[in-house]
Amino acid sequence: MPIHLTSQSRRKFLKRTAGGLLLSSTLASPDTVLGDENKQTRTPNPVSGDVLRTQGELTANGQQILEAERAIPVAGTTNVLVCGGGPAGMGAALAAARAGASVQLLEVAGCLGGVWTAGLLTKILDAGNKSGIMAELLKKFAERGSSIARDTSGTVYDPEVAKLVLEELCVEAGVKIRLHTRLVGAVLNQDNRLIAVITESKSGREAWLADQFVDCSGDGDLGAHAGCRFDVGVGADCSCQPMSMLALLTGVDPDEIRPYIRETGSEAKRRLLKLMEGHGITPSYRAPTLRHLHSGIYSLMTNHEYGVSAFDADAITQATIDARKEVHAIVNGLRQLGGAWKELSVVATAEQIGVREGRRIRGRYQITAEDLANGLRHDEAVCRATFPIDVHALDESGNKEISRQFKINGKQPYDIPYPALVAADVDGLLLAGRCISGDFVAHSSYRVTGNSVPMGEAAGLGAAVAAKKGVLPHELKWQEIKSFAS
Ligand SMILES: Cc1cc2nc3c(=O)[nH]c(=O)nc-3n(C[C@H](O)[C@H](O)[C@H](O)COP(=O)(O)OP(=O)(O)OC[C@H]3O[C@@H](n4cnc5c(N)ncnc54)[C@H](O)[C@@H]3O)c2cc1C
Predict the structure, then answer these.
(1) I want to staple 359 with a disulfide (CB 3.0 to 4.6 A). Which of 87, 119, 199, 220 is the partner?
(2) Stretch 395-424: mean pLDDT, rounded?
(3) What are phi and psi of 397, to 5 degrees?
(4) Which of 449, 455, 457 best tests ligand 1's pocket when mutated (most atoms within 8 Å of CB)?
(5) Closest ligand 1 atom, residue 124 Cα
């Protein structure tokens, strides 16, 4: 959609920048040299490559750019907009579309699946007691995957199979998918209701309107941009669990290294650690997990990057570089053992380092460690979580494995209530996946993907029903949402 600044707004801006440094980057089309008036009216064009140009002024102290006002084209209008196409976002988009809503899914990576695919995860935890979309995905991953996928009921899956299955399901359900697109802003109306999000991509800066929104970004990007309160990590310094780089390996015969394969039992991790340490390899995560996916392709998780903020691009970059280096060094070290390991090599490291913790957006219910200890039963339960408290070591001083101190009060199976998926501070916003409302300890349990998918399914359904009825998600009870869908 073309954008035209009025000549009045152009004049206003030129006046504002008078005396300042007028920034102008090189035009995308070398054959067009425009006058000052035209420079401001360029229209993003996917064919010619034209971009909506940035104008700005450097502040006197040289620390900031004052960006000029500009009109953002509206790229789409839907009933439900889902930010993030990971396990939670998949559940949300599919459920909303199948309930009859028009759905836009925005994803920054080049594939759907989040940590399942871009993160090369390969294992779905806490999915055994789930029905709905989670059960459907497991069935597909098993049917379309290897004999190992079938033997594990789809919980050990091939990330490439997952990429394809997720795209097929979304396309079939009529979900509009936009990959390679990052959410960078949110707009509320005067009634504190979320009405639009802003993205950046090769298509430039765009706005997307929707009746209802679901934050499935993992890190809670949408909630934060919308102005919601949130919590990060634990303690005054917001300590978070480490990030981890996963990798796919090949070059070894599964029969020759079977005792080290995780699916033979948890002892496999200790054996692999012993093998590594016995040969001078000291991994930063001391519970190395090796899974056989199919035909001599394995996944390996044996890296921890400590103290990295999910909101610091420089820190994430450094962690990614360090992690990749460690993975290769470990594989090279194992290869030096010779014998069964002599051809071990890396097929791929994850494009996205695995992020365990981002923001926990405040919802209308906060799941707490006490809820886990007491085995919460809630009349608006969207699913029941059974996974243990699982806080990975927060720094290198301890066992570089799992922090036992947070487990002391214990855990019984507990309910995840619908109000924990409804943002407390902004209307028209639901949450699903690891960014829902809970405390540090509870998050370490409910975050796994067997829970993220049903949370997404519930939030997507809630959003679709709210859009259909013309109400806000907090005005609905979970029972009403469920009965509307069935
Ligand atoms: C190293 C590691 C190992 C783990 N092991 C397991 C395991 O074995 N089994 C298990 O079940 N769980 C495991 N977990 C936990 C689990 O992976 C996460 O908690 C889970 O992925 C949460 O799902 P999600 O959809 O909320 O988030 P994510 O999988 O993180 O998905 C979020 C999606 O949103 C996208 N996104 C983020 N920001 C934006 C933005 N601004 N604009 C557009 N898109 C955006 C991302 O690209 C991503 O696709 C592990 C996690 C890590 C990090």
Answers:
(1) 220
(2) 89
(3) -75, -25
(4) 449
(5) 11
